[in-house]
Amino acid sequence: METKHTDVDNLRICNDCVSENYLVDYIITNGKLRKCSFCESKERTILLFELIGKIENVILNHFEITRNEPNRWEEIFMNDKESDYYWEREGYTFQEILDDNWINNSEASNLISEILRDKYYDMESAQIYEETHFCSDIHYELKESNGEVLLNEWNSFKNILKYESRFFNEKVEKILKSIFDNIEITTTYTGESVITEVGQDNKIKSLFRARVFQSKDELLDALCKPDKSMGSPPSHLASSGRLNSQGISVFYGSIDKSTTIAEVRPPIGSKVVVAEFNIIRSLKLLDLKKLEIIENNTSVFDPLYKEKTEKITFLSQLCRLITQPVMPHDEASDYLPTQVVAEYLASRSNFNFDGIIFPSVQADNGLNITLFHKSSFVEPIILKENTVLEASDTIYEEDGFYLNYEVKGSFPKNADDKIVKFEFLPSLSVNLDSIEVHHIKSVMYFKDEYSVDRKIVENNDLDNIFDE
User: Fold this and answer.
1) Alpha carbon distance 409, 389 (integer Å)
2) Where does 113-199 show beta strands of DSSP type E?
């Protein structure tokens, strides 16, 4: 090993000669005020071999060696005379990684590379041109995380709820904590919080909600009392859904009319009432779509790098896991995990979430919002005492009856306003001018079609049937 430094074991490197932020902070925090062996300034320094140990560990654990020759398909393109394809090895050399990302002193960088190359040099491998770690020609790239650890935890979580225990389960609590710990301070790669605020001072100011009716009397009654009939149902009528258990009343809504109609999946011949609800106070929602683009700014030198990266990768898949379509006959069991997730997020005071925003599984580009029980209350419509309301769906004119929805009311002379008490602060108020009745005449499906090829062969040809 050729170097102007004769006493390599005692060489020190300072924070100014290092460019990687985690390493800089480490040297400033743990280093000693000594003269740097490379830039000769008196700064916080650590032994060079301590730094080399960290670099060696990171390369061996978090990087993988790329292919040093093209695969079969790449060779075909290379040999195609009409193609200008040129194969180039993926990744970066160890020296490039050092110079471009971690070390900003060329003398130190070259020495680190030389020390590790000599450490892993193997005469026998060199004679047969076999690559060894840290040799000059080898290329590396950062290993991709597949979120497998937390995906396994998620599957375990689902199985526990379905087949073992649904209440007072410490393992479920631990899994959820590992998934959502610090979620409230997580940001996307564009710097946005994964929390979306909605309300009058924000982009989303209102929500739409739909109900299906096949009974004329029930529909007309709903038109008279849209604050009660179109808002979140009373607890004794609250059926289980994707994000609530039976008896737990929440508000399911969408940010546009077409999505909210698609979500209730109305049968042909039914009628759907749609109402817009203004959001009258600021609400904080966990935006599952933003979890798909969480920023991973964890340093590879962080001892928890693998765990943090695994978590980010898993969270990027959580939206899909929570919103994947469920067949009606599977809802009772398949909704259990998402119901527990919603209750966990709703009940933790450190999150202070009012609900969840997530993509619709029924409408392309549609967005749904579920407001948790504590934030699902609709402001009552204030009427005079003893007000009588009546709704109709027809109007008579000279040439006959016509379809026309109308609500009329009357109250006694000098009647006082009703005094309404409510348990929680209302989050929504129904926009009475927005209420519409939609008659469902047909349903359209958008689909991709694929033909099915059939091949019938003798048993001894089965191995080759798919190679044709």
Assistant:
1) 4
2) 139-142, 195-198
- Answer yes or no: is pLDDT of 461 > 80: no
C-alpha to C-alpha distance for 320 and 154, rounded to whole angstroms: 13
Backbone torsions φ then ψ of 155, nearest 5 degrees: -65, -40
| 445, amino acid identity | Y
Name residues whose C-beta falls within 8 Å of residue 90's C-beta, 6 or more positions apart in sequence: 66, 67, 139, 141
User: Is the entire prediction scored with pTM above 0.90?
Assistant: no
pLDDT of residue 2 exceeding 50: no
Residue 276 pLDDT = 97
Backbone angles phi, psi at 181, to 5 degrees: -60, 130
Per DSSP, the three-state class of 193 is strand
Residue 331's pLDDT band (cuts 50, 70, 90): low
Q: What backbone phi and psi angles, to 5 degrees, belong to 314?
A: -65, -45
Q: Are 37 and 59 in contact (CB under 8 A)?
A: no
- pLDDT tens figures, 272-291: 999 999 999 999 999 999 99
Question: Between the CA atoms of 297, 302, 307 and 312, what dihedral angle is there, to the nearest 10 degrees?
Answer: 0
Q: Is the pLDDT assigned to residue 30 strictly greater than 90? A: yes
Helices 148-159 and 336-347 meet at what angle, rounded to 10? 100
Residues 6+ apart with CB under 8 A from 442: 268
Is residue 376 classed as helix, strand or coil in its secondary structure?
coil
Asked if pLDDT for residue 123 goes beyond 70, the answer is no
DSSP letters, 51-113, are: HHHHHHHHHHHHEEEPPSS--HHHHHHHH-TT--------SEEHHHHIIIIIB--HHHHHHHH
The amino acid sitting at 44 is: R
What are φ and ψ of residue 184, in 5° steps?
-70, -15
